[in-house]
Amino acid sequence: MSTISKENYLKTLYTKDKIENVVVTTSQIAESLNVSNAATSEMAKKLSNQGLVNYKKYKGIELTNRGEKIALNVLRRHRLWELFLMEVLNLTWDEVHDEAELLEHQTSENLIDKIDEYLNFPEFDPHGSPIPNKKGKLPLMPKLKPLLSGEEGATYKVARVSDKNSELIKYFTKIGLTLNKKIKIIEKLTFDNSIVIELNNSSISLSEKTAQSVFLK
């Protein structure tokens, strides 16, 4: 198994387990990484043999402490690169994710430490996600509320958006939905779980899938 495959697998598992709070199956990881279920199951067995995951067929998969440490290190590299590319090289927040996906696997610990220091040890990336420090510790996070869990009539600030889909980030930029922007929930439609928000004095309808990528404070 290549280092890139292992790192991507562990990072995806961490994201689903610790951030999305779901019981992770190999089929979910296969969908996220765009590989076959058979390949994902085979990777799970290899990682289990290396002591990086706990895996039992049909019962889900979870990180061991060693596996979580590696996953956090990959996330640190990824999120620091995103911030560096945006703040230093002036890439837009919809461009940095794909570039960071490549750079995170090619960066030495010495270089990423230098980038961390240059950026003055930031705690959050351009999309509002926490950046683990060198010891793998995450900064204190305010409790965030998924947009779909917001209350009708309430006003919130955008605290984090998913960075997985660059086209979606471009759409958020187009409508003016950026970090710390105030939004008001106008209506939640139960028949399709879409949601209508007020943003910049305009009413905007977001599909359930789009709204799932937005978190509020």
Keywords for this entry:
two-stranded antiparallel sheet; 217 residues; alpha+beta; Arc Repressor Mutant, subunit A; SH3 type barrels; six-stranded antiparallel β-sheet; 3 domains
Poorly predicted parts: none
Give the CATH H-level superfamily of the largest domain.
Answer: Ferrous iron transport protein A (FeoA)
Distance between the termini: 40 Å
Largest sheet: 6 strands, antiparallel
Order of the strands making up the biggest sheet:
3-8-4-5-6-7
**N to C succession of SSEs:** HHHEEHHHEEHEEEHE
- Gyration radius, to the nearest Å? 18 Å
**Shape estimate:** globular
What does the model show?
The protein folds into three domains: 3-63, Orthogonal Bundle (Arc Repressor Mutant, subunit A); 72-141, Winged helix-like DNA-binding domain superfamily/Winged helix DNA-binding domain (Arc Repressor Mutant, subunit A); 145-216, SH3 type barrels (Roll), CATH 2.30.30. Helices cover 43% and strands 17% of the residues. It has eight helices and eight strands. The chain has helices at 3-19, 26-33, 37-49, 65-87, 96-103, 109-118, 166-175, 208-211; strands spanning 53-55, 61-63, 145-146, 155-161, 182-189, 194-199, 202-206, 214-216. The strands form two sheets. Strands 3-8-4-5-6-7 form a six-stranded antiparallel beta sheet. The protein has a two-stranded antiparallel sheet with strand order 1-2. β1 and β2 form a beta hairpin. It is globular and about 55 Å long. The model has no long low-confidence stretch (mean pLDDT 91).
